[in-house]
């Protein structure tokens, strides 16, 4: 049934080479060094890591402020901001690390998936950089990087289940190796972060005194703390479809209809804050959490039925920008506790896009000798790039029914 046998690596790969390198702190025994560069969406990030995952230097320029003002990411604006910042961001990460480009073992850069114009800036810069300094190049899949970040922080062995939820993606996959994933489910329309951002915009949360600088997801989480999630009853999506795919567009439509209705009732124009904004935020967050939890629950049962996870200490890793939401984490904890899985979430700063996760993915590939290219090879970016072997049809065919689990969270 599966493309290849499930292989359980019980230990992390050992360091292969240790050599002397010089940093600003003098000479030190260190492992191979990787520069990571991220520009797939709206963050320009760079970091230098050693082979053990120590962050020697990093720099991140977020475009969030600009995109909040323009009401969403405009690709040409994102491209221009990456163009203006990439040189400085990479330079700053290198300076903070005290590492000279000649001491880098490789440069790893996100080349897929993402916004074409944004990916193009990172790739063009990186190809010039590796040619100038004659360094190997490692093209990185952005979702692979999100999935592997956890291994920089905890000794998590393959295979593990991973839920990636961000502004651009939602997917469930079994991570079997650095470049070996089984895709169990993905979003059929929009990603949960995108939905939260759009609902926040429709609610004009930028005008809320506590939310003006927050992303949509952060604003909804904050307001939901003082809201009554039961006041609005949004239907959890895809209740009749027994697979692990996600859909958020219908939910967003339901929420928009409710907002419009409440505006009429309160006699206010679109663009004015509703009095029930906290309750809408709470109900939205709860429904998104319930949908994510149910699909994850089915993925766990599918993995168990097919022996895809180790019997001892099976792990669910949750990452991506939306994974920093504490309510969603609690909903997932209910599922992992009821199914005997261990839940791991990287801290928020590693859940959102950054150069560190790309450098770490480079380290993982370097250790395994996978996908390391000579600097002169031309690489192309890919705006769309599925992760791993598509198992969604098998998951749907299994039609696993979920036992009822009460997701009761006091927020
Ligand atoms: O991973 P990320 O930094 O960028 C990509 O989309 O790849 O994720 C950004 C997304 C945004 O949609 C933002 O609203 C959402 O993550 N987000 C959150 C929270 N913090 C960020 N969503 C829910 N709760 C949060 N606390
Ligand atoms: Zn991301």
From TrEMBL:
Q: Which UniProt keywords apply?
A: Acyltransferase, Metal-binding, Mitochondrion, Transferase, Transit peptide, tRNA processing
Localized where? Mitochondrion
Q: Which reaction does it catalyse?
A: L-threonylcarbamoyladenylate + adenosine(37) in tRNA = N(6)-L-threonylcarbamoyladenosine(37) in tRNA + AMP + H(+)
Write down how the cofactor binds this protein: Binds 1 divalent metal cation per subunit.
Q: What is this protein called?
A: N(6)-L-threonylcarbamoyladenine synthase
Q: Which PANTHER family match?
A: TRNA N6-ADENOSINE THREONYLCARBAMOYLTRANSFERASE, TRNA N6-ADENOSINE THREONYLCARBAMOYLTRANSFERASE, MITOCHONDRIAL
What organism does this protein naturally occur in? Lates japonicus
Lineage of the source organism?
Eukaryota, Metazoa, Chordata, Craniata, Vertebrata
The free-text function statement in the UniProt record for this protein reads: Required for the formation of a threonylcarbamoyl group on adenosine at position 37 (t(6)A37) in mitochondrial tRNAs that read codons beginning with adenine. Probably involved in the transfer of the threonylcarbamoyl moiety of threonylcarbamoyl-AMP (TC-AMP) to the N6 group of A37. Involved in mitochondrial genome maintenance.
